[in-house]
Design goal:
Strand content: 15-25%
Order of helices and strands: EHEEEEHHHEE
Structural class: alpha+beta
Number of helices: 4
Number of domains: 1
Radius of gyration: 18 Å
Number of strands: 7
Largest sheet: 5 strands, antiparallel
Helix content: 40-55%
Length: 199
Amino acid sequence: MIDHPARTQSLQIYIGYQDFLTVEQLSVALSELDQLYTRLYNALDQESPTPLPPEARMRVQESRTGESILLILAEGVKYIFSAGGVAIAPALGIPAIMASVILGCVKPVVEIRKTWYEGSQAKWAAKKAQLETEKLKSELEKPEAQPQEAIPDLSSVPDLTKQEGSILVVRFLNLLEYSDNIRTVKINQITIIEKNGQK
């Protein structure tokens, strides 16, 4: 008999693009997220095997396309074998943690972008970046923008894992930010990149 836990919160990645989205862009973005997921999984479940078995890996729960792509990513499952049968271990909530980590890294990235614009672009670009920062800050501070599930305490996560995770998130954000064809990016329905009208 297999016990099924409650459905875990998913990580929704929305990418709006102009004309095309390359397979390379999508594969690199998903690779960074997969590495972040694996590092968090191994840090939170130190008994997990390396590499993670296929059923425990992050999954594409749903995908929708058009002139955009919406990926709904979900946590894999861990089977526990015992004398009583096979059960599924409680979910670690990794997609919710990933959303929290990515959104937490967005504010400094937007601030860096604003500073860069002020030093090397016309004043209108800096003003636009400032408005984006203010808009993002107000969206992040809305109560409904916060994950609905409790985020596990990450104090037990090794510092090296946190550093590696931060690097992966920044690489993920840089790929999306500096791709001219990518116009909009949302994480769990919060807009983190909006480049409408820019060429």
